[in-house]
Fold:
Amino acid sequence: MDDKAGIAERADIPQDRAPGRANRLRQVSERRRAGSAKAAHNGVLSEASIHPEMLAVKGVKIWHHSLLGSARSCQKGEQAMSNSINFPEPKMVRVNGVELEVFEAGRENRGKPIVLCHGWPEHAYSWRHQVPALVAAGYHVIVPNQRGYGNSSRPEDVTAYDIEHLAGDLVALLDHYGYDDATFMGHDWGAMVVWGLTLLHPGRVNRVINLSLPYQERGEQPWITFMEAILGGDFYFVHFNRQPGVADAVLEENTSRFLGNLYRKNVPPAEPEPGMVMINLARAEMPLGEPVMSENELAVFVSAFETSGFTGSINWYRNLDRNWHLLADVDPIIHQPTLMIYGDRDAVAKAPNLKKFVPNVEVLSFDCGHWIQQEMPEETNQAVLDWLDRQGAA
Structure:
């Protein structure tokens, strides 16, 4: 990681757990790396690729991807988004020292705010199926492209993407709209931000709805330090940190191919390849499985990342160890009513101890992969609205 990120140096594995246990876990993880091929297509890697004993020991779950051509992609992306039913036009909102591109709908429902937080490498448009349903149910829907994404600000300093800044953006967004608190819904990295926001600013969150990524127990070692010790330098979380800029450049050179290969469902098991899985995915000539979205919808994501590049969004990963330190002294319990939705075929595994840290949680599972709200939009909408109704939020 860049020295500017202020991350602690790599710590050794405690002696009572090394070298025998560490070696055994490495051997197990090697046998399970076929799961990480699927995880690469889901943009995350979790317990699916790591032996559960390792996670129990450490208290960690890994959550987790020519100018003419670019102009054509941009036009196609803008057209697809403008043609999307009920997807709002964006506006730029200045908050917390940055500008966020915000898609707002249902202003007539003021007083019932819900903020939707996308994951990596995504966009506010990933919530296109949920926005009209939530507005019809009486909610004021606020969907930011978070810092580093779309047309939102992309600060150069790596530490500008830590959990304090990302959570601070959302708090400032509530202030902008005049709300004391709101319901927050996140997917993938967006879920990670919502968990962190709720820990750092519990008074600003009244309900939590998270998809795919369960609560992450802090554990005994910083997250990247631990992953490097067990999974090595080619594991993409580690690679993002230890070789800054390398993956960014490859993904930017192959943006359309990378996203087209990533947004897939029903991906069959595949033999693992040497190297860094995200770089491999960006260079893979043939996608696996089935597309999650239409070509026009995909064009929205491609256009956005051809404009923004990937460095800002990958900088979220480059703050994982920093976040571990920043969360050291907070109350680790999520007290708010929470809905957790898993995909049964997601590479992100379910958290067996979720209720320990989120005692007021209701858990649902869908027969789908990682891109839950895009793979099963109607089921997601119904589940979310039913849960909100039971909570009395509507």
Q: What stands out?
A: The CA atoms of residues 3 and 158 lie 9 Å apart. The longest strand covers residues 98-105. The chain has 18 helices and ten strands.
